[in-house]
Amino acid sequence: MISQLHQFSDFWQIGLVEICLMHPLDVVKTRFQIQRGSSDPTSYKSLRDCFRTIFRREGIFGFYKGILPPILAETPKRAVKFFTFEQYKKVLSLTSLSPGALSAAGLGSGLTEAVIVNPFEVVKVSLQANRDSFTEQPSAFAQARRIIESDGYGLRGLNKGLTSTLGRHGVFNMIYFGFYFNVKDAIPANPDPTLEFLRKFAIGLTSGTISSIANIPFDVAKSRIQGPQPEPGAIKYRTCFQTMSLCSSPVPCGGVMLLVYEYVSIWLQKNW
């Protein structure tokens, strides 16, 4: 039990550092995902334009809008991700721990993680979509209270976009853990500490890249559902797959996601 608590604490600290470093990019990503298109005069023309506009209009703290929900949720979420993966892996090890079992453990950890983090994601996205200066926007707690008072705790309120979040985290963890651990075991360890670090880093980078590409459609759908609707008073984005169908190029996005999953699964089955 004590070792599990130490493990949970280590993952918590890793998550905190990651959030502080990556949150500005998360704000920029959300702004691109929820903008209404080139016809919108407030839309960003490029990545550089987005960074410059946020900095000019909202200040340096504009890049840290909505950071409190991630600190409250994303940091322990990292601990939940790895902790539950280990638990699901132990359960599945009662049978043969095949490549498919590792992916199944990853899927289970992703679904668990999504249920925990989704309410915080709703608050985070709504704060990131706010283009007022950092000092003028409501606090995370005030925003959460506002959402609960207007829409409640259900799928139209604090748990809006749950299906998309389940898809995003489930797909990511399924591919990430399945690919990383199987490839890591297949490539021999290097006795040199530096080369061994580079080996693990390269495998992790490749795994994270493939997983991120595969879960993009769910991530975009989540931001559209949880963010402000294009027309006030009218709900355009309602469900995960309905939102995907309304987004530009839904067929290529869906094709990429399924092709990545299928070919990675086939490759793992052939080699392990």
TrEMBL record:
Topology term for the membrane: Multi-pass membrane protein
Record-linked Pfam families: Mito_carr (PF00153)
Main localization category: mitochondrion
Keyword annotations from UniProtKB, A to Z: Membrane, Mitochondrion, Mitochondrion inner membrane, Repeat, Transmembrane, Transmembrane helix, Transport
Intervals holding Solcar repeats: 2-91, 97-186
UniProt catalytic activity: 2-oxoadipate(in) + 2-oxoglutarate(out) = 2-oxoadipate(out) + 2-oxoglutarate(in); glutarate(in) + 2-oxoglutarate(out) = glutarate(out) + 2-oxoglutarate(in); heptanedioate(in) + 2-oxoglutarate(out) = heptanedioate(out) + 2-oxoglutarate(in); L-2-aminoadipate(in) + 2-oxoglutarate(out) = L-2-aminoadipate(out) + 2-oxoglutarate(in)
Location relative to the cell: Mitochondrion inner membrane
SUPFAM superfamilies hit by this protein: Mitochondrial carrier (SSF103506)
Superkingdom in the source lineage: Eukaryota
Gene Ontology CC terms, in alphabetical order: mitochondrial inner membrane
Family the entry assigns: Belongs to the mitochondrial carrier (TC 2.A.29) family.
Function: Transports dicarboxylates across the inner membranes of mitochondria by a counter-exchange mechanism. Can transport 2-oxoadipate (2-oxohexanedioate), 2-oxoglutarate, adipate (hexanedioate), glutarate, and to a lesser extent, pimelate (heptanedioate), 2-oxopimelate (2-oxoheptanedioate), 2-aminoadipate (2-aminohexanedioate), oxaloacetate, and citrate.
Cross-referenced PANTHER family: MITOCHONDRIAL 2-OXODICARBOXYLATE CARRIER
Name assigned to this protein: Mitochondrial 2-oxodicarboxylate carrier
Organism: Xiphophorus couchianus (Monterrey platyfish)
Lineage of origin: Eukaryota, Metazoa, Chordata, Craniata, Vertebrata
